[in-house]
């Protein structure tokens, strides 16, 4: 019972991981469409990132709108720096000004590729999607990001583990009690038989000694 439960939970965990990563495809597509309504051509102008005439720096309308539509987190980077995000730090402040790190940064800025997978953001594990932002000349000038916090995504699964563990232990305990009771029931006639044989042997010995 315990082995079947463990195998089932492991399969479910892997399936949920794959689902969480694939969900970011639709989210990052939605993020791109929200930005496209503001402007389809990205450019750097002074110290700001623009989509058409829309200044992205410090404007949180698009990440917040994505959260309303799809849930999760979203960020727009200028270069490798967050300039519009709904991610908050431990103090509850938006993580504007923090930088992209890890394998996603290498994928986007070193190889010019998108990144899909897990990443650590401000000390928390996330399922993520990153796409490069390119200007009219094709140069990478920023990054689009969507993600969901791993701990939040698996919260229901962790509750399920507790339930399954409790049920499994209850089943095992019940099986032990049942088998113990069954074993005693089966052995009781044997005990009586052995006791009877012992009494017969004792009676026979006493009779022989009396003779």
Structural class: alpha+beta
Distance between the termini: 62 Å
Q: State the major sheet.
A: 5 strands, antiparallel
Q: In terms of per-residue confidence, which ranges show pLDDT below 50 for 5 or more consecutive residues?
A: none
Helix content: 40-55%
Going across the biggest sheet, name each strand in turn. Answer: 5-4-8-7-6
Helix/strand order, N-terminal first: HEEEHEEHEEEHH
Question: Could you tell me the strand content as a percent range?
Answer: 15-25%
* Rounded mean pLDDT score: 84
Round the Cα radius of gyration to an integer and report it.
33 Å
Number of helices: 5
Number of strands: 8
Tell me the layout of helices and strands.
Elements (H helix, E strand, L loop, with lengths): L1 H35 L5 E4 L2 E4 L2 E2 L5 H10 L2 E6 L2 E5 L17 H8 L4 E7 L2 E11 L5 E10 H4 L1 H56 L1
Antiparallel strand pairs: 1-2, 2-3, 4-5, 4-8, 6-7, 7-8
Helix pairs in contact: 1-2, 1-5
């Amino acid at each position: 019972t315990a082995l079947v439960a463990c195998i089932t939970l492991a399969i479910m965990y892997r399936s949920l991981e794959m689902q969480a990563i694939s969900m970011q495809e639709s989210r990052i597509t939605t993020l791109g469409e929200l930005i496209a309504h503001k402007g389809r051509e990205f450019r750097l102008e002074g110290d700001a990132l623009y989509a058409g005439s829309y200044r992205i720096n410090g404007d949180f309308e698009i990440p917040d709108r994505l959260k309303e539509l799809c849930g999760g987190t979203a960020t727009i980077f200028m270069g490798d720096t967050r300039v519009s995000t709904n991610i908050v730090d431990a103090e509850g402040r938006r993580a504007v000004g923090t930088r992209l790190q890890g394998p996603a940064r290498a994928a986007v800025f070193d190889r010019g590729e998108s990144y899909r997978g897990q990443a650590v953001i401000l000390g928390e594990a996330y399922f993520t999607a990153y796409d490069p932002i390119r200007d009219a000349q094709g140069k990478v000038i920023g990054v689009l990001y969507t993600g969901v916090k791993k701990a939040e995504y698996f919260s229901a699964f962790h509750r399920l583990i507790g339930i399954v563990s409790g049920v499994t232990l209850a089943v095992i305990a019940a099986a032990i009690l049942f088998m113990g009771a069954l074993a005693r029931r089966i052995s009781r006639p044997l005990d009586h038989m052995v006791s009877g044989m012992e009494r017969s042997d004792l009676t026979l010995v006493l009779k022989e000694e009396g003779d």
